[in-house]
């Protein structure tokens, strides 16, 4: 292996491998039938009620998968939420509109929705033009979607994925027509805007867990359990690292200094 | 046949993802005598991004065709939004023609389509830019209305939000500093600008870091699910288990 590993990456490889191992082990354990305690996400609990209300009022559901292409993990996570959402809307006999600003996202979203309506036995209801490509231009996209929202008056707007300045423009558009708004993003800069303007928000990593939580099958729930264990390990490392660094500075003792350096080496970035 | 249709994309995804992950940790090969594996990973790292860019070009074509088809149908069916569709189609065609023909700009394949004086630049400056500015300016009003709703002290959480937002706002403006200028030097940490800085540096930074750690773990978990085939390609359907 000497000469193969890029300089300064061994610690990232080690931490990455540990995280992946924890997640894979959790998935395998869940598949073998182990009990998987996973926390619930209040925004997702509100989804069923919001879909039912929107359909009962004869109002459509809008879903926006962020403003990035499929090479962004937030878009992938958003599409993972779209599948169970489309199934719920189809089962309730409602209309689901998915305006997109990337054509590859449109292509995938259309396939997901068509399959969901077919699986729910409501293929007759589905129309391909419910998933449409609008524009790659962020503000052009927002102008069109806000116009559609103003005219169609949806009962539920779901905004998932990466957003830039368009987050507030979209969320306020939905608020003005009285739609229930459920959002989720891992874009730290846009989170305050969505928290301020939406009814329910999935914050940060919850977006990546949402699809798995909605699908509810053992393997996906197992990965969520693995994710939670990793977070627990990260918190434990933070506390232990702080303690070790403090003891090293206060006492100056060799074992603490050695441990502090070990922590710094493993968790240094880049 | 459907099994093959499901498996092939999954195999491609797994192989490409593992190659790209491995390439991030493998040293760049020096010279052509480096091991094949090392050269393969370096190739993957360099070329896969280019391949995605090539795919994205075709995606533009897919998007453009879908846009035209959707709006043509709306105009043909005389739907309620047909006038908007007509405006979209006409604008699309005009920009497509002046951009492709490079009207008003340097001609030829190498000619810059966005050169000063080109019609495309004129459309951008005279139409698109003012439209962007108009839409963007709505943010000022939307921020005010969203903040009003979020900062109403209806619960402990929203009260805390209101209090910290007020302190940060006051700490950022000169008038706010004058409000607490009378606080004596030994208690200077209670001045509004100091409190504002403390909120930004300590609780805000702690929250942001926790958020980033969670996001990184979430991304890794989703990636592992996709590589392992637990989170299936959306086009392949199935339950993913």
Provide an overview of this structure.
The complex is a heterodimer of chains A (270) and B (241). Chain A has ten helices and six strands; from the N terminus they run H-H-E-H-E-H-E-H-E-H-E-H-E-H-H-H. Chain A has 270 residues and is α/β, with parallel strands linked by helices. Chain A has two domains: 42-215, Rossmann fold, CATH 3.40.50; 217-270, no CATH class. In chain A, strands 3-2-1-4-5-6 form a six-stranded parallel sheet, with helices on both faces. In chain A, strand 4 (156-160), helix 6 and strand 5 (180-185) form a beta-alpha-beta unit. In chain A, helix 1 packs antiparallel against helix 9 (218-251), helix 2 (42-56) packs across helix 3 (73-92) and helix 8 runs antiparallel to helix 9 (218-251). Chain A is elongated, with a radius of gyration of 22 Å. Chain B is mainly alpha-helical. Chain B has a domain at 1-77. Helix content of chain B is 72%, strand content 0%. Chain B contains eight helices and no strands. Chain B has helices spanning 2-25, 36-76, 82-100, 119-150, 156-172, 174-179, 192-201, 203-227. In chain B, helix 1 (2-25) crosses helix 2 (36-76). Chains A and B meet through helix 1, helix 3, helix 4, helix 5 and helix 6 of A and helix 2, helix 4 and helix 8 of B.
